[in-house]
Amino acid sequence: MKKFNYVCLILAILFSLSSFKGKDEVIHLDGNWHFEMDRNNEGVTAKWYNKNLSDNIKLPGSMAEFLKGDEITLKTKWTGSIYDSSFYFIPRLEKYRQPGNIHIPFWLTPAKHYVGAAWYQKEVNIPAKWKGKRIILHLERTHIETRVWVNDKEVGLQNSLVAPHIYDLTPFLKEGKQRISIRIDNSIKEINVGPDSHSITDHTQGNWNGIIGKIALEAIAPVYIDDVQIYPDVKNRKARVKITINNSTSSIFSGKIVLSAKSFNSSKSDKTQEIKSKIVVAKSDTKTIELDLPFGKGMLIWDEFDPALYHLDVNLNAKGIKSNKKVQFGMREFKINGNQFLINGNPVFLRGTLHNCEFPLTGYPATTVEAWEKIYRKIKSYGLNHVRFHSWCPPEAAFIAADKVGLYLQPEGPSWPNHGPKIGLGQPVDKFLYDETLRMAKEYGNYASFTMLSAGNEPAGNQVKYLNDFVDFWKARDSRRVYTGMSVGGSWPVVPKAEYQSRGGVRGLEWKKMPETETDFSAGIAPFKVPFVAHEIGQYCVFPNFEEIQKYTGVYKAKNFEMFRQDLADHNMSNQSKDFLNASGKLQVLCYKGEIEKMLRTPGYAGFQALGLQDFPGQGTALVGVLDAFFQEKGYVTAKEYSRFCNETVPLAKISKFVYTNTETFKAEILLFHSGKTPLKNAVISWTIQNEKGIALASGSFDAKTFENGNGLFVGNLAFKLDEIKEATKLNLEVKVNNTAFINDWNFWVYPDKKVEASPSIYYTTVLDEKAKEVLKNGGKVFLNASGKVVKGKEVEMHFLPVFWNTSWFKMRPPHVTGMLIQDKSSAFADFPTSFHSDLQWWEIQNRAQVMNLEDFPVDFRPIIQPIDTWFMNRRLALVFEAQVGKGKIIVSSADLSPDVTNKPAAKQLFLSLQNYMNSDQFNPKNQLTLDVIQDIFVSPSKEQFKTYTKDSPDELKPNSNQNKVN
């Protein structure tokens, strides 16, 4: 038995050695590192690279992830602008400013925070067989500046935000135990990309300090393949391959290059022949050669529909030297023709969202392909095909995953050079953006998904000249993608040389007269002869989902959500939070539908970049997504529902209005948006109008037709007389492409056209006069139309469209309301079909109507129609409420509901429904009120009103307001 055990031990040792032998070209440095914070920036002078650091940390990871750093206080030196300093002054929020109960509302709160230098140190054992090899240190992503020492010798400094930091340690390492020290500094120094840039800001990923992704020492041949860049030529079935060989030896190198490509991820397979070439590289020199790699008739092309990929194998061989690279790429061409984008010659419309580096569990971006695939598949399930990375560039895994899933990416230079730095003035950021985008092209340029490039976001400075030069530089250098200057809003100057425009100004929903789906953006895009991609569309807010708080189990906590939740409770509405979420969410989806459809029906419109499909956790907390910051659904819309109006093919309808009387005819012009891989051949498009019971009232179809790719393609017209509708009815028009999954629909409402008069059994009044008081005293019924008379709540501005971005970032710029919660099950709406949320029939009632602030009402008081306030204020508001007053009963409306209203069929019908309710046995208000509390709505202003405290932008009173400014 002993002999047997001894043999097993020997075999185990041999197996271990053989396993190590196969891996000894790479030493992974994951795991424990010695660590120490350098608060006083003394480590270099004190030669910390020669001492044992006093603490420990694990890598990959960040300081905050392992609770290294400082507690959050009101004096924390954040990286990011604070536009609304009122949090520091509002009396009711004082409890959230106390030590131990700090709740920052501007963004998510990290477990710890630290800005400055920190040291990471590890001892490694260099094997003897590495002698004569080139040894590099690979740090996949660090934040921000690294300096590296081997033992007591400094290797160098790097500061890229977009690419790995790679150090050549060959001259510094020798066999045996060696100490590697890395100093990482995440403070903003001479190179300032802007404190709000998503590459560094606390608004999104956070200004973390650490190293993530691959951390390793690699031993490679001294003559090696330094770079491979692949330039597909789809039309001629070949790829031009540019290979750079580096000879770090003191001898001339003579060898052979062999390359071939093979598909790997599609049902069809394809493989090229091997291409061989001799190469000679002078000693201590670099040489680049270009080779054509031909493809056969089975060549597979890459696009969003069929993302077929290849691996290119490049092998460099000579006596005693072997070097190889495997490169993922796709055969595709992303070009521009006039105002259209083309993928492999096929017109494509970009349906995009922004990725702002939202990673709430870690505070830093994912570096695994699996994590990015999960995000991208969710994005694609919502009908999108494009992602813009706002002022940052993701790690390599993001490109690998996008290639596999089939998405068109626009990474950006890591800069928002506006709040502090500016471009074109000779500041360090000017050269840095060239350096960074060059690194991006080298590291990620072969990925098929990397189709677009922007220098950053919304700049200041001498921007037109700088960005014209930037575009010219890249157009001449690399034809694999298309280039714009920076992604900008509508007020920014046009960069004439940009190959496409990513800008605002031609977006949004007007709906100033009434909601419609007839207008488009043709006039707005007419001045642009290149593709126009709408910058940051949407930004429609919803109320916070407080159930999301429990998801924050990592580095970041949703202290902002906790504060909003408690504030809602302090205003006696905590039991309504879920209803507020769902009601505001339904309106949000309606708005996204309206805006996206408007672009899809605009001929020549090239695409959009929504802000966003998911919430933005910073800038005051911008809850603009139908998904949360974890890319998970909130419960009020599914991917299947959303993709009805956002997809490669979408039926559309031009409808002049959504509220009718039964003396009218409903008319619609049916259109189609199509951005498919092939034309829709012999497509039959049909339509149905049905009521809420699902009973079809009319239907039809149009002749079969072939539709090429395009926006707003004419299908046909339909008309439906409404004279058979005898009572208030909600109808639905559904249009579908037969024998496909493409379907879309629109609700509209029909009301009887009859005169509405004030009921003699109800006292209708526009003021709470003596007669109203007498009626109530004697047990009668009063309808008070308080439109235009409200004082308590006068400061709250309600539009039909919800809060834009958030009221904190824009210092309470209106609108202040994000939809309405409607007690739709109440008999008050028996003759006014409605759901629990704002829908299009409410526009003429809701838009620009006054709201009433019920701050002095009983804590359990709930109005029939309740506007949902911005979550920074959480005022209990009402548009219509009912109550018992003395022996009588009253309904009060701050919307203009009266027997005299004209040209507003919905308002007239709602007034009728409320009157019928008041005359029914169902009119039995739950709450008792005094006349004084009602009267006070028309006398006294709100006790609590928003005050900005400062007018600068960003606020001059925020802590460390000048920390990132450049003079």
Automatic annotation (TrEMBL):
Its EC number is 3.2.1.23. InterPro entries: Bact_Beta-galactosidase (IPR050347), Galactose-bd-like_sf (IPR008979), GH (IPR017853), Glyco_hydro_2_N (IPR006104), Ig-like_fold (IPR013783), Ig-like_GH2 (IPR006102). Residues 1-21 form the signal peptide. It catalyses: Hydrolysis of terminal non-reducing beta-D-galactose residues in beta-D-galactosides. It is an enzyme of class 3 (hydrolase). Residues 947-958 have a biased composition (Basic and acidic residues). Keywords: Glycosidase, Hydrolase, Signal. The keyword Signal applies. Residues 947-967 are annotated as: Disordered. It comes from the Bacteria. Residues 223-332 form the Glycoside hydrolase family 2 immunoglobulin-like beta-sandwich domain. The keyword Hydrolase applies. Residues 28-217 form the Glycosyl hydrolases family 2 sugar binding domain. Belongs to the glycosyl hydrolase 2 family. This is beta-galactosidase. It comes from Flavobacterium zubiriense.
